[in-house]
Amino acid sequence: MAVKTIGWKNNRIVMLDQRLLPHKEVYQICRNYQEVAQAIRGMVIRGAPAIGVAAAMGVALGAAQTQEKNFDREFERILLTLSKTRPTAINLFWALERMRKIYTDNRSQGVESVKRLLKDEAQRIYKEDIAANKRLGKFGASLLSNARQVMTHCNAGALATAGYGTALGVIRALKESGKQVEVWVNETRPFLQGARLTAWELKKEKIRATLVTDNMAGYLMQKGKVDAVVVGCDRVAANGDVANKIGTYGIAVLAKRHGIPFYVAGPTSSIDLDCASGKDIPIEQRDPKEVSHIFGRALAPKGTRVFNPAFDVTSQDLISAIITEKGVIHPPYHQNIRSHVSH
Description:
The protein has helices at 33-41, 48-64, 71-83, 90-106, 111-143, 167-176, 193-204, 217-222, 248-257, 289-292, 333-342; strands spanning 6-9, 12-16, 27-30, 149-152, 182-186, 209-212, 228-231, 235-237, 242-245, 262-265, 271-272, 293-294, 297-298, 311-314, 321-324, 327-329. The chain has eleven helices and 16 strands. It is of the alpha/beta class. The chain has two domains: 6-132, Up-down Bundle (Four Helix Bundle (Hemerythrin (Met), subunit A)); 137-342, Rossmann fold (3-Layer(aba) Sandwich), CATH 3.40.50. The chain has a seven-stranded mixed β-sheet. The chain is 41% helix and 17% strand. Helix 7 (193-204) links the parallel strand 5 (182-186) and strand 6 (209-212). Helix 2 runs antiparallel to helix 3 (71-83), helix 2 packs antiparallel against helix 5 and helix 4 runs antiparallel to helix 5.
C-alpha cells in the first residue's frame, strides 16, 4: 500500500501525522499511552477503524511500561484515559473491550504473560482491520460495478484505517477489478479531510479524482454527474442510522432527492447493537477554531460565536445499503443488521 497509517516499531507506536498532510509526510513517535491518547484526541490519527487500532496499541504500550506492583490499577487508568479521547467512534470502545477481555481472561497467568498477550491482540486487531477492509472492498466493488462517477465525503481510506480503507477501499477494489472510475472528493469542512487527505491518497494511488466544495454536491447530482455515493462511518446504530463526518446527512438527502444510491462502508466493529438509534449516538463537539480559523489564520471576526459538531446522523431510510467485510446489508436494517453481525 502507498499509505502507511500506523505501526509498532521498537516498542513505540509510529503514526503518520495527518494534521500536516498534504504538505508534509511526518511520522510521529508515541513513547507512552498518554502520547497515544493525545494523538487520537488531537487528530494526528483519525478515522474510526484507525482510532480503534491506535487505542489497542496504546493499551499494549501502556501495559508493557507498567510495573507489576501497580499493574491492575494502572491498567484501569490506561483504559479510562484512552476511552475519553473521542466519543463518537464506536471502534475505540470495541477495541478497548477486546483488550480488557485479554486482561481479564489471562490475569491469573501473571503480568508478563498478560503484557505479551496484549501486544499480540493489538497486532491482531491491526491485521484484522486490513483484511476486513479488503473483503469489504470486494463486496462494495460488486455492488457499485456499474458506477463510473462516485462521490465520497471526508476520508475513509487507508488513512482512516490500518490500511486499504472502507469507502476508498471500495473505490480501490473497483480500480483493481479493471473499472474506470472518477471520484468526486468533497472538501469536508471544517477540517478538510477530503481536500487534504482523500485527494492526497487518491493521487498516490493514481485514481482519477476531482476536488469540489461541499456545497457543490447538489449541483453535480442535478447535472447527472454522480452515479453513487459511498461514505465511511463512525458508528452504525442497531436500526441502521449512521453517524459519519458532519455534512454526510445533507449529501444523503440530496442523493435521495435525485434517485442516487447512497452506500455506507464500514467493518462490523463499527456496528453498535447496544445503540438503538441515531438519537443515542454521542456527537463530539470540537474546538471552535476549526471553523473560525484555517491553517492558523482567522476567517471570521474576533468573538464570533461558533458551533462545531464533528459528526451528524444519517437516518436509515436514506441509506441504500451498508457494506461490511461480511457482505452487504440491505433494508430492513432493524432485522438484517443483527443477523448480519451474528452470522
